[in-house]
Amino acid sequence: MPVPTGARRTALTGSTVLVLALTLAPAAQANGATSTGGRGSLVLIGGGLKADNTQVYGEIIKRAGGSKARIGVLTAASVPASQDPDAGDPESCSNSACNGAYYAGLFKQHGAADAQWIPIDLDHITNADSDDVVRQVNSMTGFFFGGGDQYRYVTTLLHGTAHTDSKVLAAIRAKLAAGAVVSGSSAGAQITAGADMVTGGDSYEGLRDGSSPGYFDDPSRLGYLPEGGFGFLRSGLIDTHTGTNGREGRALRLAADTGHDRVYALEENTALIVDAPNTPRERLRVLGPQGVAILDLRQARTGKHPQAGWTLTGARYNYLSNGDRYDPNRWQIRPAGGKRPLIPLSASPIPANSDVFSSPANPAGVPYSFLNTARALAAGTQRTTKAGTFESGPRFTVTFSKQPGFTAWTSDDATAHTVTGLRIAVAPE
After folding, report:
1. Backbone phi, then psi, for 55, in 5-degree steps?
2. What is the pTM of this model?
3. Domain 37-235+271-286 architecture
4. What are 126-146's pLDDT values in tens digits?
């Protein structure tokens, strides 16, 4: 069957938009998120998890008990079988049950003793409060949330506008606090966020128009859910598919609009591992072939250009790759063993970049455009460079600059595998 990517959400009903457009009361107490911290861990993947990624699947299984691991697979972010025209074809179906079977099979192939679909989706919402399903959850040692649309997890596992836990979510939350691993990819990573969870949007429209509370049929409109997702990780906003979909711009705008000073911008097929989430002992590590960008807005300032629009100065861009560690309570980055400070030697000009956010409107766009410019600057003697958006009216310019506090680390002679403290400014032309 096709790999479910969840990179682009599909529209829900108009009534869903109406419900989510309401700005609801904060949910930190209502959904029990303040009790999440404990001995458990999170493995959060930015989407596009490949079937042969033994690093990430192996890490989840190891944390769930190794050869004794029992993984509960939740795929309620997918469309249910009743909405899948290919539901009867196991080769082309892409609904929650099919995707659940797909991931369960992969976890078994990678060495889990058992993996089972937890039968909750838009066709089976009542199962979220079923005592039988709670017993199934309690027999698991780890959990995996698949991709799709994160708001379907809100619809199926939380109780309406009260945003309180269903019995199944309460059981998963208790298992996490007791030491279980909770993992997820794409929407399955996004739903672990706390307040102001992103619900959709593209970078250019986000920079131009700002963010709005709600869920919108227009996939380019930057929306967010004020009370957030499940609150398993609250030390920063979360975004996914960052480099492939050019989401750095929307992440910066949403964080600035909602008063957050940190974003974990996850890349595809790569995991951010979080130990002891939501506690003073919280520690993070990157695992996989790509990386995780950590956007630091503690010193960021926003403004309004008199004619053209929104501006941002003072943000810091950090990019961590495989093996790098991060202490969110101290804001400290520790590069992986074997990496050393990169000595910038290249005097070649930084390649021009006229599509810094890999616009979906650009048929010739390339992924990781923002990261590629950041790495090129880090590896050369040039101190600053500019890149622009593909769209105009206005066209936004991103300025990258190396100022005190900037460092790059490498494990070869030329590539900036880890970047810390690169200054970022955004302004319209």
Report:
1. -60, -55
2. 0.92
3. 3-Layer(aba) Sandwich (3.40)
4. 999 999 999 999 999 999 999
